[in-house]
Amino acid sequence: MTAPVTDLVARATKGERRAVARLVSMVENASPQLREVMAALTPHAGEAAIVGVTGAPGVGKSTTTSALVSAFRARGQQVGVLAVDPTSPFTGGALLGDRVRMQDHATDSGVFIRSMATRGRLGGLAWATPQAVRVLDAAGCDVVLVETVGVGQSEVEVAALADTTLVLLAPGMGDGVQAAKAGILEVGDVFVVNKADRDGAEQVVHDLRSVVRMTERAPGAWRQPVLSTVAARGDGVDEVVEALDQHREWAAGSGDTHRRRIRRVRDEIEAIAMADLRRTFADLHGDDRLDELAAAVLAGEYDPYAAADTVTASMR
Amino acid sequence: MTAPVTDLVARATKGERRAVARLVSMVENASPQLREVMAALTPHAGEAAIVGVTGAPGVGKSTTTSALVSAFRARGQQVGVLAVDPTSPFTGGALLGDRVRMQDHATDSGVFIRSMATRGRLGGLAWATPQAVRVLDAAGCDVVLVETVGVGQSEVEVAALADTTLVLLAPGMGDGVQAAKAGILEVGDVFVVNKADRDGAEQVVHDLRSVVRMTERAPGAWRQPVLSTVAARGDGVDEVVEALDQHREWAAGSGDTHRRRIRRVRDEIEAIAMADLRRTFADLHGDDRLDELAAAVLAGEYDPYAAADTVTASMR
């Protein structure tokens, strides 16, 4: 391991902010030194509770995340926040959203806040987010909150990333049946209806509770609580923290946390292997060869399986 | 090629409904015969306009899709509809949503409608959806509408899948700034504010237009139209069809369609290569070996890059 990386990792595991920020940037930029960084960090990781916070735009994710940070800090816990931003596949520019709400915590040395663009890549979350989480985990965070915009596929990814997934809803954003259609019921461990002072909030809570109640589950399985908050005022946030604690305890005892973590690392390993395959292929045949193969498939001269064979053959 | 597959493909390319349905099922179930199917279908595909329809739950995607189907049918076009359903990573059960709205078209021989579960897999869209689109394309559809729930990562995937992406919004689902935060501005080619008879619709249209106007773009680049509809009554649907036509013409002329299609096939090739890698590894080392590697990483005994090396080494 090169001296600068050893030094950086040593400083990050002591919680030094600049070193932590530097390592997250290395993840974001897919630094060639990541291999060394991850090898050095892995033994230090595994203690943090990873909590995913997700929901459609406008439900109050940043406000809720900020309120949760305050609650964890009040218990003396170190907190990491990773806001995963959707990014254009065309320009590469991240829309950082209202990080401004996090500014309350910007000067708190017990809080690491980081936005990260996933570059609009398919599977963008697959290795970058778990690696960034690993950095915050190894830096001594007791809790890492991973905030993602999204309803749908990205939530499925968050469910795979987190030990506990908190799904936020708000009145006026579609009812419980719409929520069920979006597939959120099966990825959420804790449901929170935010903006509970607005019209229709009680109905959303009621609908969700009905759907949760009607869902068949095995004996001993987790039953998702449906809570309500007005996160901007801090109302109901303590109950959310309590529900997160309860889920954590249940998931650790049932083996659920271990299973999710295995799945997360497995996805990361596969994503790294795929990146390696892509790089080996480009080294052998040039950066444009995959585009040429794709063009041949589009022209009907080749089929995608034959093209994939060419890619995997480059590893032999 | 085995006789049944040859026969099935021949029948599907003549537009025979049962053969088309059978091929889509083979895609959905990852049939081992897909390789033959895709090799036989590829020369027949490439004519259809692929239109992605996406937006948050509750904006009226099914209603809008159904209205678009009627409009395309009125022009005498063959239409395929592929509704990609979010699926639990835990139970594998798809929530088929309100396919009932599509029943108007169920007996029309010029319309193929199919729901497909993506099985909650990371990258679930990567090969299954393009392959199902290829089936509908080769079956003679002039237009294939790919309807997905989602705001966020899944939209990025839809943008990669489609030649033209229609993003649906509705009043009360967050304003234009929220939309910008969700990253939809850069994936949408045509924006439609549905439920335009509701309060706040004009404001959403106004906000979106402002954001579109302020977005910097290269000379000759596409400027996204922002339209409004009441899809349930068919209001504004003809204007949407016209905007889709205009985008198609622009995208064909600018090379944008070709670039997107290259990207789509490239992603499909890589997804197939990855599936091959996974299978080869499991054949060599057993189905559980990847989980064992992941467990070693979790225990801090191994790093994810070393684990990935073990996977890629299985190809050598």
From TrEMBL, chains A, B:
Organism of this sequence: Haloactinopolyspora alba
CDD domains: MMAA-like
Family as reported in the entry's similarity comment: Belongs to the SIMIBI class G3E GTPase family. ArgK/MeaB subfamily.
InterPro entries for this protein: GTPase/Isobutyryl-CoA_mutase, GTPase_ArgK, P-loop_NTPase
Domain of life: Bacteria
The name this protein goes by in its record: LAO/AO transport system kinase
Entries under Pfam families matching the protein: MeaB
Molecular function in Gene Ontology: GTP binding; GTPase activity; kinase activity
Keywords (A to Z) from UniProt: Chaperone, GTP-binding, Hydrolase, Kinase, Nucleotide-binding, Transferase
Gene3D superfamilies to which the protein is assigned, alphabetical: P-loop containing nucleotide triphosphate hydrolases
